[in-house]
Design goal:
- The protein is of the alpha/beta class.
- It has 13 helices and 30 strands.
- The strands form 7 sheets. Strands 13, 14, 15, 16, 17, 21, 22, 23 and 26 form a 9-stranded mixed β-sheet that branches. It has an 8-stranded mixed β-sheet with strand order 1-8-9-10-12-11-6-7, sandwiched between helices. Strands 4-5-19-20-18 form a 5-stranded mixed β-sheet, covered by helices on one side.
- β29 and β30 form a beta hairpin.
- The longest helix has 22 residues.
- It is globular.
Length: 550
């Protein structure tokens, strides 16, 4: 069956035209010529959205999202509440249930809209995952050539040996020109991102045109499918050392996940989405989607060098003042300019990195790293975790951000995101935690909690851990130099701390030592402990079989 017949059978698309599996240069020109929508708040819906730089086809494509969608629309992300999955999906604030009858009616309206306007759709056939044993066939179908080009960057292509491709394929229908009507369609807003597990469909209806929607939605699908097969899907980076020793690094934004995984002495598997299966580690993607805001080009040379490469996509970075984007060289763009969005982004192929594992695959990990940036300044720089501790801290997914600019907010703000990627976790958190604990035990992997945050006091009093010290702690753990080391326990937070580490002042390993006011440390540690306990109770983790450890 042809792809056109597949799409007519699946959706009822009849009066549309397709541009199928175009090359990246072809998509580059198509995006500039045809991608139209809203790029300014209050502006029209037919403005140009994609532009070349001074380098033309030999440089990046620059793309502008709808101003209401400069990141994922988490409150507008849903799964259809079919009876067979109603108790299986982990419904929450960023993955809401969608009424099945409302969904079916909405899908028909979206298809009728495309048939009526005789739209042109870009189609890309790809895979989620680079291991043919379990890779999920993924077909992107959408109105924007930029999105098709993004998917080409971000997902494996032409993967050989995948079985039952047609029967297992998931299809995304991405239609930014459609406008949802909440009262009629059952959506919260004028846009909705909906996962339909029964029919293997991801529907993006409305102005949800941030490029990341095209990867995070299908990643959420993978987080639903793969654990059912005993494969652990993870929101983490992964790399491999010279002794074939793999490591995975979990961490929320700002904890150092990308920086610490980009190590010249280790080969990168991937920087965001990884599977741990019976075959070892495997990247779900074939590209990287990096934040650009405030990028330090000296500390992030790989991203800096890729900025001017052909076939990459820069998202929501403005041109230089007084110039059109066509007049700008990509290396001259102001990456500190957040006037369009704080979440400026950059999509580039994985092979733009100089040191990557073949096919994005690697062995079973020897070390698991849970990253946190504790702005309260009370967590140890490094803690050694037992399996039950790992499950607890994994489902907690803690980091603490510095105080913002809001009047009256003067102390750090805690963030808890289950499994270090709560919005994307479609199964309940215990599913992933148990798989992680089982695989750790099976492969005798060690686990550490690495704090890249503050020492000597909270933000504003203490100092941020130096990257040099963090690297030394991480390398010691990766090299096995903390295995069997003498430890002591932080009593309030019940964390096991090494008493010594090569290349690190032993005095800082117990954070209480670094505070001038010991009573203030104890009080702040108690406050953080209570925050952990409140989160554990609020999320109902005990009902999922997770043991409280703090």
């Amino acid at each position: 069956m042809t792809f056109q017949a597949d799409l007519e059978k699946l959706f009822g698309l009849k009066n549309v035209s397709y541009k199928y599996n175009l090359t990246k240069p072809e998509l580059f020109h198509e995006a500039i010529a045809n991608d139209r929508g809203r790029v300014r708040r209050g502006g029209p819906s037919n403005e140009q959205k994609a532009f070349p730089t001074q380098l033309g086809l030999n440089g990046p494509l620059v793309y502008y999202t709808d101003p209401d969608c400069t990141g994922r629309r988490t409150k507008d992300t849903y799964a259809v509440k079919w009876p067979e999955i109603a108790d299986e999906i982990w419904f929450k604030a960023d993955l809401n249930p969608y009424d099945s009858e409302k969904y079916e009616a909405l899908l028909k309206r979206v298809v009728a809209h495309l048939n009526e306007k005789q739209g042109t759709l870009y189609v890309k056939d790809l895979f989620m995952g680079s291991d043919a044993d379990f890779a999920v066939p993924y077909r992107f179908v959408g109105e924007y050539a930029t999105h098709a080009m993004f998917c080409h960057n971000m997902f494996p292509k032409d993967l050989q040996g995948v079985k039952d491709v047609d029967a297992r394929r998931w299809t995304m229908l991405n239609v930014p020109s459609f406008v949802c009507e909440p009262e009629r369609d059952g959506s919260r807003a004028e846009a909705a991102v909906i996962i339909d597990t029964r029919n293997k469909i991801c529907l993006v209806a409305g102005r949800a045109d941030y490029c990341g929607v095209n990867k995070k939605t299908i990643f959420t699908v993978g987080n639903y499918l793969l654990p059912k097969e005993g494969r652990l899907s993870m929101h983490c980076s992964a790399n491999v050392g010279k002794n074939n020793d793999a490591a995975i690094l979990f961490g929320l934004s700002g904890t150092g996940k990308t920086t610490l995984s980009a190590d010249a002495s280790r080969r990168l598997i991937g920087d965001d989405e990884t599977i741990w299966s019976d075959n070892g580690l495997c990247n779900l993607e074939d590209g990287c989607y990096a934040k650009l805001i405030d990028l330090d080009k000296q500390n992030e040379p790989v991203i800096a060098q890729a900025l001017s490469k052909a076939g990459t996509i820069i998202e929501n970075v403005p041109p230089l003042p007084g110039k059109t984007m066509e007049e700008c060289h990509p290396d001259e763009l102001d990456l500190f300019d957040g006037s369009i969005a704080e979440n400026t982004r950059f999509s580039y192929p994985l092979d733009a990195n100089p040191n990557v594992m073949p096919n994005g695959q690697g062995p079973h990990p020897k070390t698991i790293v849970l990253l946190t940036a504790d702005a309260f300044g009370v967590l140890p720089p490094i803690s050694i975790l037992e399996p039950k501790d790992v499950m607890y801290h994994f489902v907690s997914g803690f980091t603490a951000r510095v105080a913002g600019t809001e009047v009256g907010v003067t102390e750090p703000q805690p963030t808890f995101s289950a499994c270090f990627g709560g919005p994307f976790m479609a199964q309940k958190p215990n599913v992933y935690a148990k798989l992680l604990a089982e695989k750790m035990e099976q492969h005798q992997a060690r686990c550490i909690l690495l704090n890249t945050g503050w020492s000597g006091g909270p933000h504003g009093v203490g100092k941020r851990m130096s990257l040099k010290v963090t690297r030394a702690l991480l390398n010691a753990a990766l090299n096995g130099e903390l295995d069997g080391v003498e430890t002591e326990v932080q009593p309030t937070l019940n964390l096991k701390m090494p008493k010594s580490c090569p290349g690190v002042d032993s005095n800082i390993l117990n954070p209480r030592n670094t505070w001038a006011d010991k009573d203030a440390y104890d009080a702040t540690a108690t406050k953080l402990r209570d925050m952990f306990r409140d989160n554990f109770k609020k999320k109902g983790f005990a009902a999922f079989g997770i043991e409280e450890r703090i």
